[in-house]
Amino acid sequence: MPEWVWLWLAAALNLSGMAWLALAMDVHWDRVVCHRGPGRRFPPIVLRGLGAAALMLGLGVCLLADRPSMAVLVWLMLMSGAALLVALVLGHRPQWLALWSFGTPFNR
Amino acid sequence: MFQNLRQSMSWLHTWFGLVIGFVLMVVFFFGSLSVFDREIDRWALPQTRFDPQPMPSFDQVLLPALQRIEPDKADYQANMPAMHDPAKGPMTPRLALPPDEYWAYTTHRDPVLRTGVGFKVPLAKDPEAHNHIHGEATIDPRSGNTVRADQLKIGSEWFYPMHYSLNWQWKNLGVFLVGLAALVMLAALVSGVIIHRKVFREFFTFRPKKHTQRSALDLHNLCGVVALPFHFFFAFTGLVIFAAFYFFPVSQFQLKGLHERHEAVQAQETGLPHHAAGITAPLASVDAMVARAKQRWAERDMAGEVGFLVVHHVGDANSYVSVYRAGSDRVALVGEGMHFKGSTGELLHEDPPRSPVAEINEFLTGLHLQHFEHWLLRWLYVVGGLLGCVCIATGFIFFVEKRKRQHARAGSHGSRVVDSLAITTVTGMVIATLGMLTINRLLPDDLPGKGDWEIAGFFGLWALTMIHAWARSPAVALARLNPAWREQCWAIAILALNAVGLNAITTGDHLLKTIVTDTYWAVAGVDLSLLATAAIGAWAARRLARREHQHTDPRSLRDAQPNASAEVAHA
Hints:
The structure holds two protein chains of two kinds. By secondary structure, chain A is mainly alpha-helical. Chain A is built from four helices and no strands. The termini of chain A are far apart. In chain B, 60% of the residues lie in helices and 9% in strands. Chain B is built from 21 helices and eight strands. Chain B has helices at 5-34, 37-44, 58-67, 73-83, 154-165, 173-195, 199-203, 212-226, 228-246, 248-252, 256-270, 286-299, 356-369, 375-410, 414-442, 450-471, 474-477, 483-507, 511-517, 521-552, 554-559; strands at 99-105, 113-120, 132-139, 146-147, 306-312, 320-325, 335-341, 347-350. In chain B, a hairpin with a 7-residue loop joins strand 5 and strand 6 (320-325). In chain B, helix 1 crosses helix 6 and helix 14 (375-410) packs antiparallel against helix 15. The model of chain B is unreliable at 559-571 (pLDDT under 50). At the A-B interface, helix 1 and helix 4 of A face helix 8 and helix 14 of B.
């Protein structure tokens, strides 16, 4: 597969990883998803596990795209970019992260 | 003095960050631009807008071009008196200096390539020393024609040296100042982490709708933490690159004897003669040597292009030619040198695989200097660099916001001074950069000394932005927002749009052409970045106008009062 496919996939995985890690924190979950009472919410440990797994998978995909020395640099920088993007989205349009809360109903 | 470690680290971070922040702002901004320095060169020198070429034939193209290069007048006037021994005879005229070394350098991003000659000083005070007067030329590899020297390569010859030396060459003080700033930055980074122990909480915290003091600090923390590995590694690798330079005074005095013995030993071990023999000999076909080098690299499972080529002891029996492989496909730089006997073309020495220490050094250096061909990683580096700029700028803004009310009450002008300097260093610097590009398009291409005019315009505009920032700053002494921020943001938007328009008009390479019909990403990339800059400038100016309006409205002033406890409790 051409390199750019792997790199886009890696970017998507890193973004998802950061989004899940952010949603594992109560204050962020509450901004994205509005509670309608004592309902179900994803246990933070699951979200953190998903987030970590996505980031690790991102590293794996980076290694498929490039030689190891470059792949690690790409992965680290993609993580920074992903974290920045998630933070900015949380600040301005938190509802865009609803996808990563597995469609838990929200009203905004 | 301080209650605890956190308070003392906070003091250190604030004051060292503030002072060194002005230098680091320049370093980070021009560092970000330097990622695409060659592309900016293409934008500034329209006659070089063609595709990158591999190194051309030495025998057909480079040798005639090298033989036309003359010793640089300024270098001759400055350094000849120091090197020449008057007791041995009259000073050799500039044009009579014999060539001693030829070199040529190119990268995967360069259409044109740099070539140079080191001319020997025949009657030198210290015959053992290097004793070279230099001459350089940039040539079009397709024809061998030179690009005029006084046409400044704005990217690689202005923005890039600005990044590591502030373009301050006197006694190399610029390099030392940037080095000091990098060292202090490491301290600022560590103290920043100590202040914000709960670093993962800061990771995603950004409350843009809060008052400036809170949102500026949030953004400062966010940008600092999110790219912390980047910030740390770039400061550190920058210092690694210049490490030998900082020891320069020592290497020229205490270590000089050792250095010369090392060179003699190395010459013995490698079989590459350190001195010329004094017997003339012709130069064999260098193209054949290059072909042999490429063959050897392919045999060692690392086929590649030539990045750097040097002919030592030109015209002498001891002449040897060094051919180095370009590092476009990895993090490490040029390497795997092959050295051939000049007169016969026989392979004298192959550089052995690097030692672990050399390998680590090469990796760290290459990480920073990024010769590699990986466009995503390059753009991510730009993002990292700009995050550093935002981190420093929001640091300034937070500093002023936190203090301007108490300064206003006390009648002090401290906040006003810092705010004016911040405007000069943030928006003022961008205006100077955009202005330089604008002047580049306004002045005719064949104007003699065009580069000097562009440099004068750069500094002139920057000085003007400082005067403007100061003139509009009385508002800060009254605890209000300095209107210069908004006004300079508008100037950025207008200048950036102007630059794109001027490029289209003066060269005909408008965006429709460079993206669709006759794709040339180097110029399209610069134009698109300029458009993005204009958009951000305009958006920022409008946001600032709204905020200024809020501040003068008494009702919203009440709502916008920062919580006194916010600054202490921000972790």
